[in-house]
Amino acid sequence: MQVLWKTTLESLREHISEETFQSLIRPIELASLEGKTALFRVPNTFHGEWVTANLGDVISDALCAAAEDLGREIPRPLEIAFEVDDSLMDRFEIEETPAEPAKPARASVAPSATPSAAPRLNAKYSFDNFIVGPSNQLAHAASVGVAKAPGSRMNPLVICGETGLGKTHLTNAIGRAIYEANPKARIIYLSAEEFTNEFLLALRNQRADEFHQRFRRECDVLLMDDIQFLAERERTQEVFFHTFNTLYQEGKQIVITSDVYPQHIPGMQERLVSRFEAGMVADVQPPELDTRVAILQKKAEEEGIDLDPAVADFLARVVKNNVRELEGILIRLAVKAELLGRRIDMELARDATRSLIVEANNTATTVEDIQKAVCAYFGIRLSDLKGKRRHRAVSFPRMVAMYLARQRLGTSFPELGDRFGGKDHTTVMNAVRKIDRLVEESDEQVVASIEAIERRLGF
Ligand code: ADP
Ligand code: MG
Q1: Cβ of residue 327 lying under 6 Å from some atom of ligand 1
Q2: Is residue 97 part of a domain?
Q3: Closest approach atom of ligand 1 to CA 136
Q4: Mean pLDDT score across all residues of the chain
Q5: Is the beta carbon of 216 within 6 A of some atom in ligand 1?
Q6: Strand order, beta sheet including 29-34
């Protein structure tokens, strides 16, 4: 087994960068190879899932090839499975800090959060690498304002928006800018969850006083991420309320983020909500296409990835609602391209986004979108499409629209009946079947119109 894995590693190493090899491949080990399954030991579940999803094929190919070189037949395709082995965490440690080999394994610290010297901020996030567009302009301007003059006009600053849209990034950027302008500023950055845990720990150790001292007396800027975690947590809300008041009265800046508007956080005390609303509430929305393209380009530049504008445009069109996902897909593509020794081209990009495209279409397109596209294509009115007239000029488009909605969105027959002006579900079923048959017979008119309408809908 050892020899087989060693040979595989050698061949993998030839095809991938040293960095990828060290960070992704080196920490794993081949445990066994039985039947069609190669079982690996991995440092944690996340690593295992990531490697299986992104490098599974490459590893399996290299393993088969290495086995054949060693005169052993392995059935293809090989399946990759993994089990978690904590002791492998050490390998990250040794790699990252070669000078101090005997450090204990980091268990609870997220590997991505690189704490900076004084405040525990993520060094990756600054205003410099935040792309501004209409979707986040207000939140960005408010953040810059707060960073320039903490504790003055916009207090507290509340940044709201769905996950993956840059709240944590902006919050860290504020902290960093304040720290750079004034290294003596006592800045605390933490999530509401950490705040809660630290408070509970302090209580258990009878150190509540120390806790209050730290947050109320030894803090000039409090940056609290993901305040929605305080939902229904009355006791922590109580503590936070007093912390908030003390800081606020002393003109200390408070920044909080939330994935919903504070008034929509379940079980959030009214008095806290009204404190938040008295400050500056700015939201972040999903970025527009141009902003998404710019974010991708920035990220590619930072990571030294050679990104073709056409590919950037394609990726930005597919991933719309979450910047984290957008970045994730770029990194995955880069790793894959490197492993395969080729450029990130459209083919690779399409491959990597195939499942996303199906998902995006299912969620983005509605029955109404289909109805409108059909009407536009055939030049008829929506009221006629939903009406009862049986003239072929309207009945044919109607059937096509029902068919598309059923095929593409999986809408039920009774629901489609409702959406088409209250028709019986059997009428819908017959219409869908009829078009289905015509498609199967490759009826030219039907196939051509369906293709054209699907293009309009971006399928
Ligand atoms: P949130 O806290 O809102 O869930 P994050 O701040 O963690 O989102 O952002 C997710 C990822 O997307 C981060 O890597 C962040 O750097 C990146 N990101 C989000 N918005 C932007 C932007 N406008 N410009 C550059 N990077 C962004
Ligand atoms: Mg966040």
Answers
A1: yes
A2: no
A3: 23
A4: 87
A5: no
A6: 29-34, 37-42, 79-84
Q: What are the start-end ranges of the E strands in 347-431?
A: none
Output the CA 352–ligand 2 centroid distance in Å.
Answer: 25
Q: Whose CA is nearest to atom 5 of ligand 1?
A: 166
Ligand index nearest the alpha carbon of residue 164: 1
Whether 25 is covered by a domain: the verdict is yes
Q: Is residue 102 part of a domain?
A: no
Ligand 1 pocket, 237 CB below 6 A? no
pLDDT at 355: 65
- For residue 329, the domain's CATH number is 1.10.8.60
Residues 143 and 15 grouped into a single domain: no
Both 142 and 243 in one domain: the answer is yes
Is residue 447 a part of any domain in this protein? Answer: yes
| For ligand 1, atom 18: residue with the closest CA | 166
17 token code pair: 């960068």
DSSP 8-state symbol, 257: E
CATH code, domain carrying 40: 3.30.300.180
Q: Which of 217-226, 259-268, 404-413, 438-447 has the lowest mean pLDDT?
A: 404-413
Which domain, by its residues, includes 233?
137-283
Ligand 1 close to Cβ of residue 163 (< 6 A): yes
Question: Which of the four pLDDT bands, split at 50, 70 and 90, describes residue 101?
Answer: very low
Distance, CA of 68 to CA of 82 (rounded, Å): 22
Contact between 225 and 168 (Cβ < 8 Å): yes
Q: Are residues 273 and 141 in the same domain?
A: yes
Alpha-helical (H) ranges within 250-304 are 270-277, 289-303
